[in-house]
Structures are given as C-alpha cells and as structure tokens.
Design a protein that fits this description.
The structure holds 2 protein chains of 2 kinds. By secondary structure, chain A is of the alpha+beta class. Helices cover about 70% and strands about 10% of the residues of chain A. In chain A, α3 runs antiparallel to α4. The longest helix of chain A has about 40 residues. Chain B is an alpha+beta fold. Chain B has 5 helices and 5 strands, in the order αββαβββααα. The chains are: A alpha+beta, B alpha+beta. At the A-B interface, α1, β1 and α4 of A face α1, α2, β3 and α5 of B.
C-alpha cells in the first residue's frame, strides 16, 4: 500500500512539474521576446519585451545586424535582408542629396555663376533626396514586416 | 504488485491530467462575438497548438509609412485597414479596443500625432514665410526670427510625431500580444 501511495505521489509530481513548466513557457514567450520599433530623434530602436530592453539602434550610417537578430524566423530574415539592402544606399543617397541641395544654395549666392548650374544642382539634390528617401522608406517598411514575422513565429 | 504500481501511476497521471485541463479552461480563448447574434459567448474550446499562430496571421497589426502617413495593415496578407498621419483621422483606439493597455497607448498616439501635426505644420509655414521674406532681400529683422521659430517648431513637431509613432508601435505590440493569449 505504501508503494502504491509513493508511486501515485511520484506520478503526480512528474506530471505537475511538467504542466507548470509548459505554462511558464507559454505565458512568457511573447512578453519576454517579442520585438517592436520605437523612433527617437536621429535613430530607430529595436526594443524587446514588455520591459523594453533596447537591443540596438539604427541611426544615420550605423545599424545592427537585424538578420542575425531575427534569424529564428525564416520570413523575418528575408525581410531583414531587404532592410539591409535598402537602408545603406537610402542613407547615402539622401545624404548626398542634402549635400547637393546645400551646394546649390551656396552656388546660387555667387552672382557670376550660370543659373543652369544652380538649377541642375537643385534638381539633382531633390531627385537624390526623393529616391534615397524612397529607399529608406522601403527599408523601414521591410524592418516593420521583419519584426511582425519574428513575433508571429514566437507565438507558435 | 507491479500491476498495482502501474495502476497507481496511471491514476496519478490521469488526476493531474484532469487538473491541467481545468487550468487550460481558465486560460481559454477570450469571448467571441457571434455574427448577427449581438451576444458574446465564451469559447470553452482549448486552443490547438496552431490556433494562436492562425489568429496572429489573420488579426495582428503593423504599420508601414508612406511619405508622411502610415498605413495600418492587418494580417499576413497585408490588408490596409486605415491610414494615419498628418491631419488624418482614423480611430486607432477603436481598432485596438479589445486590449485596454493598447487603448491607452493609442490615445497617447492620437494626442502626440495631433500636436506634432499642428505645431510641425505651423512651423513649416513660418519657415517658408521667413525664407520668402529673406529671398525678397528685405532687411526685415523679423525674417531670422521667423526662420528660427519655424525651424524650432518643426523640430518640436517632428519629435512629437516620432513619439506618437512609438506609441502606435507599442499599441500594436500590446494588441498583438493579447491576440495570442
């Protein structure tokens, strides 16, 4: 009889510990690990979990390896690669556009310069800003999708 | 004796199994409205392992920006359900109403977005006026003040718009979290 009770207790203990472990995993996965993006002046931060741990900052000419961060999710990794593909050129082209526009304003102050040069620089600068801005926008949208897919695969 | 031990193990495991089942019902899916009935029912069905993922696929929100505005997108198929941004009015609070914490963040987004839009817009207007006055080569002392004030207002507005989108991101994060419970 004593063995019977002991066996029942052992079975109960094994089963109970298994259940509580599973519950803890299910309850904390999203809260602890899900990512989101938060914008600050000059950078975008990748934040993890309810407590808001900053994993990395993406700013002008600097970034983190997003593909590595979201590597557990295949689709998230593809979008992270799209982000990396557009972010670098987008940043450089936008910066070049701003510099060109600055040069156009500078040249326009010089009286004996052909006005077509100023106009050309203005158009080139605006075009570069628009194109670079578009690439940056694509990059951030890919980043948003990447985070979405990563969080989606967390909840499985 | 061995069969008794085996019996005890089975009974012990089944008792615990029943307890675990009862606990699962405690975490059952949130009330679901039946279309057209006007009532809510509590689903007693235990979620299958793939259910949370399917729910996320269909319902989870995100946003993508498009030149000053942001499209709110639902689900894996990327359905655009609304647009927010400069002077655009879309009821995000209503959208995330199922999650109280998300509603708080959505309200903060609305406030920040409105302030950022108004102050940023006025700043841009002031800056343009200042630039026009300067371009006309008039020695008006007000022109540098207009440019500086306009630029400052634009930065302040941008800061608030930025803060607003962070709140929106948090609102969707919380909403999506509550989907997966």
């Amino acid at each position: 009889m004593a063995r019977f009770i002991l066996s029942a207790c052992v079975a109960a203990q094994i089963a109970l510990s298994g259940v509580s472990m599973l519950t803890a995993q299910e309850g904390t996965t999203y809260d602890d690990n899900a990512l989101r993006l938060e914008g600050h002046i000059g950078d975008v931060r990748i934040v993890r979990g309810a407590q808001g741990t900053v994993l990395g900052k993406i700013g002008v000419f600097r970034g983190i390896d997003v593909a590595k961060l979201v590597s557990p999710s295949e689709k998230a990794t593809i979008e992270a690669k799209n982000f990396a593909h557009d972010y670098g050129p987008g940043t450089w082209l936008t910066s070049l556009g701003i510099a060109t526009l600055g040069a156009a304003i500078g040249v326009s102050r010089i009286h004996d310069v052909n006005s077509s040069i100023t106009t050309g620089l203005m158009l080139a600068g605006t075009g570069l800003i628009a194109y670079g801005g578009g690439r940056l926008q694509n990059a951030y949208n890919a980043l948003s999708r990447s985070v979405w897919w990563y969080n989606r695969d967390l909840t499985r | 004796m061995k069969s008794r031990i085996f019996q005890a193990l089975v009974i012990g495991a089944s008792v615990i199994g029943a307890t675990a089942g009862a606990q699962t019902i405690g975490h059952a899916a949130p009330p679901v409205a039946t279309p057209g009935s006007g009532t809510t029912i509590v689903s007693g069905r235990t979620a299958a392992p793939g259910d949370s993922s399917r729910s996320y696929d269909a319902q989870a929100l995100r946003f993508e920006t498009h030149w000053g505005s942001a499209d709110i997108i639902r689900g894996a198929d990327g359905r655009v359900i609304g647009t927010v941004g400069w002077f655009r009015d879309f009821d995000v609070e209503k959208l995330v109403a199922s999650s109280p914490q998300a509603v708080t963040e959505a309200r903060a987004f609305k406030t920040n977005n409105f302030r950022g839009s108004v102050v940023g817009g006025l700043g841009a207007l002031t800056l343009v006026v200042g630039a026009v006055v300067t371009a006309n080569s008039s020695n008006n002392a007000a022109s540098p003040i207009l440019i500086i004030a306009g630029g400052g207002a634009m930065v302040w507005g941008a800061q608030h718009l930025n803060a607003g989108y962070s709140k929106l991101s948090r609102a969707f994060w919380l909403y999506n979290r509550d989907l997966t419970r």
